[in-house]
Amino acid sequence: MERGANRSNNGSFNIDKDSSWFSQFRNASNPWMARYVYALIFLVANLLAWAARDFGHGALIEMKRFEGCDGGKDCLGAEGVLRVSLGCFMFYIIMFLSTARTSKLNEARDKWHSGWWSVKSVLWVATTIIPFLLPTGMIQLYGEIAHFGAGVFLLIQLISIISFITWLNDCCISEKNAERCQIHVMLFATAAYVICLVGIILMFIWYAPQPSCLLNIFFIAWTLVLLQLMTSVSLHPKVNDGILTPGLMGLYVVFLCWCAIRSEPAGYNCIRKSDSATKTDWLSIISFIVAILAIVVATFSTGIDSKCFQFRKDETPPEEDDVPYGYGFFHFVFATGAMYFAMLLIGWNSHHVMRKWTIDVGWTSTWVRIVNEWLAVCVYLWMLIAPVIWKCRHSNDSIELKTEQQKHQWHKARF
């Protein structure tokens, strides 16, 4: 029987129940649809954490176990974020442990990943409630651990972005697409560099209006230096990687620099803000919503990109019953993403007071972004230089081996 919609004798369509996407989703045969459900759960957790921070003070104060919170009322919002984050982390780490190393479709772990939604709904509710029953000390300990977990998430995201840029460049310069994509590569690269330069100029105008803004001047000027460094290394004859990848990496680096400066506290004199900056306006609300959605999208896209962490390229073609993406890696990314959104909502400091409708604000957030920018450049440069180093080392080893063989033949001929 054909799968899908089949026409009956009377001319009407009958939907094959077993072939509908709903039936596949219910019967655990649609892992692609399952990932959207996990992303939705992650989005709900983000919204719950935000609600606990901005609107949960009254409810949290009623709970006596929060009375030991250091800093009094102001830190209750941060504790609420950490408790929601811990529940989200527990859910995804359980899923990680139960689905890691799944390789084939229709096996037990695949069905657990893609189905059993009634059981996982109960599990999610339980893991969300349990952190609110834990003492404050354990939550503070989790907050310290979350700094490390959020850093792991940033590193995974960084490698994923660089791998995507490298993959895109390899596709464009391949023998199959080299001639056809040459003009497109030049246009994209030129546009990327123009946007980078315009962004740097605007940051100088907006965030370094006075010569006394030495820190912002340093951040922006150093970003320009890093852009030049990436371009020079990429165009070096021994590397010869073109101008597309440094241009795209420049966009990412300039974006990180902008995010870092935007994270500086509102009272910093080198940030031009209106007198109503202390009040919530529609632009702040839109920015906050976009930031939350960006966190979910970034986590989702990174979670299905497990191939960028394969150190050995598997040349064997995938089989039909292979899983479409790494389930364990997918859930691990979401688990670290739970720690990451907690750090953004509390400004990477559980004792830092955050205004409503703000995210990732504070000096700690600024330096996290700056370090992430510098680390991104270091990783990218290493990905450019490493093949050259290994090639030179392999050539030297080959020369030494040939020399030893010649010496051995010379001694053999002599004696």
From TrEMBL:
Family membership: Belongs to the TDE1 family.
Source organism phylogeny: Eukaryota, Viridiplantae, Streptophyta, Embryophyta, Tracheophyta
Pfam families cross-referenced by the UniProt entry: Serinc (PF03348)
Organism annotation: Acacia crassicarpa (northern wattle)
Designated name of the protein: Serine incorporator
Membrane topology: Multi-pass membrane protein
GO cellular-component term (any): membrane
Bilayer-spanning residue ranges: 36-55, 76-95, 115-134, 146-168, 183-206, 243-261, 282-304, 324-346, 367-390
Localization annotation: Membrane
Keywords from the UniProt entry: Membrane, Transmembrane, Transmembrane helix
Source organism, top-level taxon: Eukaryota
InterPro entries (UniProt xref): TDE1/TMS
